[in-house]
């Protein structure tokens, strides 16, 4: 993936995260654009889910690898790696949420940010 100069840094990182998710066959990939929401905590949330804790962990690792390979950035914070039910990778302006399917349904992240612009991506 070649960085497009027109892309902001946060948009670029979100695209790298999406590519990492697609590499490990993450399901129902979406990107919430939070830039126009006054109280947002980041520019983008990238969200997907997988059927097993093993796949959730593999997706999170793939996202980290893709972003590090292109930008040499590590996540500012990581949570949920031990259990693999909901892993959060925080890149400050981009937050990646990798859920196990039942946890995604339970937490309903998309509903919490209903004012966000949503872009859907195909799984690879």
From TrEMBL:
- Give GO MF terms, alphabetically: ribosomal large subunit binding
- Tell me, in one coarse class, where this protein mainly resides: cytoplasm
Matching entries from InterPro entries are given as: Iojap/RsfS/C7orf30 (IPR004394), NT_sf (IPR043519)
Q: Does the keyword Cell cycle apply?
A: no
**Mind listing the UniProt keywords for this protein, alphabetically?**
Cytoplasm, Repressor, Translation regulation
Record-linked Pfam families: RsfS
Q: Does the keyword Zinc apply?
A: no
Tell me which stretches of the chain form a coiled coil: none
**Signal peptide (residue range):** none
Q: What does this protein do?
A: Functions as a ribosomal silencing factor. Interacts with ribosomal protein uL14 (rplN), blocking formation of intersubunit bridge B8. Prevents association of the 30S and 50S ribosomal subunits and the formation of functional ribosomes, thus repressing translation.
Protein name, as recorded: Ribosomal silencing factor RsfS
- Source organism per entry reads Mucilaginibacter gotjawali
């Amino acid at each position: 993936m070649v960085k497009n100069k027109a892309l902001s840094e946060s948009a670029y990182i979100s695209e790298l995260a999406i590519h990492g998710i697609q590499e490990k066959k993450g399901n129902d990939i979406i990107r919430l654009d939070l830039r126009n929401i006054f109280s947002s905590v980041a520019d983008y949330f990238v969200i997907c889910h997988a059927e097993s804790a093993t796949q959730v962990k593999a997706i999170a690792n793939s996202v980290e690898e893709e972003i590090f390979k292109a930008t040499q950035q590590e996540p500012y914070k990581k949570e949920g790696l031990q259990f693999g039910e909901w892993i959060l990778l925080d890149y400050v302006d981009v937050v990646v949420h990798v859920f196990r399917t039942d946890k995604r349904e339970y937490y309903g992240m998309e509903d919490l940010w209903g004012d966000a612009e949503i872009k859907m991506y195909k799984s690879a």
